[in-house]
């Protein structure tokens, strides 16, 4: 036996999770405990098949700040105490980095890009989403179960453990359980879940990676089904994360749809980007909206006649008068763009196309298949994102699309079009900053190709990324109007001249402040956008 020294003491943690008094769930408190030690031996452990002729890849550890070093030591100790990692002498070695989570804590990540490039991809088939949803006819009760750190619940094949090795300031380690960041991890997890719940599939259970949906036609049935599923999790020593589970629901969100006794409907979040589009306030904003609507005019019956009243307002020297006819056409076009005649159910076997765009004010993207729209999405830039360089901002739009449409894009071929030419070289870029490393950890799960598409041809995503400025500007202008309305011009005053002069000086200073606030919007107006005008 070969002993390898470790700088950390071995402890096995045990943490109870308080389970509320929920029918059936209260009888399975052990299923919701935190992960305890190594998972049991499974019939299908995680394997890493390499391309022929591959030599071990080892890279130097990344430099870390003192605070990160302290966090690294703490998390390595925790992984060792749980038995998830062990000291290694493998010739393989990936560097370690940290990703900051929303709550401010740090998540330990391994940069497995080198290993992923030489790994044979697992093309495990995913179920058709429309076929999954067809099974729900007649169901009236629903529960959704999300597994806790699902990847760590699958052991790595003994012969492949050495390939997961990573380097750190505190030593060389390797994973005994499946780590995050490996290209085939999601496929392996899906395969495991299907094998465990095989007898329940198409009966009362839907599985999509680590999400389990239990559906039933009555309360009595649902109690029985829920008990069977939780018993299976207990039998297989699989643990669920209570905070991400929902039980005994009459309406529930799953795979981008809202499921209820009435049937399956599209999640309103998918079309919020269109339905929340503000009413145009000038000719430029009309052009921006019509650029989006016109791109899909072949799907919109009577588009030309509907858009006629708004198109007239974009003519040269035409006064901007928003009539009732314009309002009616605007509302109808938005409704048609968000209708099922445009937003279609995807075909998982067919490739997806995503158009993305980023501007100085927002991110926009469109998910398409066979030339038809599946979903729109956009959001305003967060405060810190406004400082991103253009390259990172465009990549942020790609990551935004991958996150919100994961249930569609995972497992299939995805072609992403961007109007930033250099972005297509991100996968071969030798040096990445911390932000890009974090994004690459997410991207490795996808069969992704990034292609260049000129901005003029990328009208839809471009319009979505820029339409958010109208919402932001609306709030800013309302604030300015409110402030300016408090300014009082002292045309007639009974006060002594000295006091009147003081009021006028105060007025001038307040006007200057208001004018300074308007400068950013004046600069934006100077930057015209080809084909859709400027905002």
UniProtKB/TrEMBL annotation:
<dbReference type="InterPro" id="IPR043502">
    <property type="entry name" value="DNA/RNA_pol_sf"/>
</dbReference>
<dbReference type="GO" id="GO:0003964">
    <property type="term" value="F:RNA-directed DNA polymerase activity"/>
</dbReference>
<keyword id="KW-0540">Nuclease</keyword>
<keyword id="KW-0645">Protease</keyword>
<feature type="domain" description="Reverse transcriptase">
    <location>
        <begin position="80"/>
        <end position="259"/>
    </location>
</feature>
<dbReference type="InterPro" id="IPR041373">
    <property type="entry name" value="RT_RNaseH"/>
</dbReference>
<keyword id="KW-0808">Transferase</keyword>
<dbReference type="GO" id="GO:0004519">
    <property type="term" value="F:endonuclease activity"/>
</dbReference>
<keyword id="KW-0548">Nucleotidyltransferase</keyword>
<dbReference type="GO" id="GO:0008233">
    <property type="term" value="F:peptidase activity"/>
</dbReference>
<dbReference type="InterPro" id="IPR043128">
    <property type="entry name" value="Rev_trsase/Diguanyl_cyclase"/>
</dbReference>
<keyword id="KW-0255">Endonuclease</keyword>
<dbReference type="Pfam" id="PF17917">
    <property type="entry name" value="RT_RNaseH"/>
</dbReference>
<dbReference type="GO" id="GO:0006508">
    <property type="term" value="P:proteolysis"/>
</dbReference>
<dbReference type="InterPro" id="IPR050951">
    <property type="entry name" value="Retrovirus_Pol_polyprotein"/>
</dbReference>
<dbReference type="Pfam" id="PF00078">
    <property type="entry name" value="RVT_1"/>
</dbReference>
<keyword id="KW-0378">Hydrolase</keyword>
<dbReference type="InterPro" id="IPR000477">
    <property type="entry name" value="RT_dom"/>
</dbReference>
<protein>
    <submittedName>
        <fullName>RNA-directed DNA polymerase-like protein</fullName>
    </submittedName>
</protein>
<keyword id="KW-0695">RNA-directed DNA polymerase</keyword>
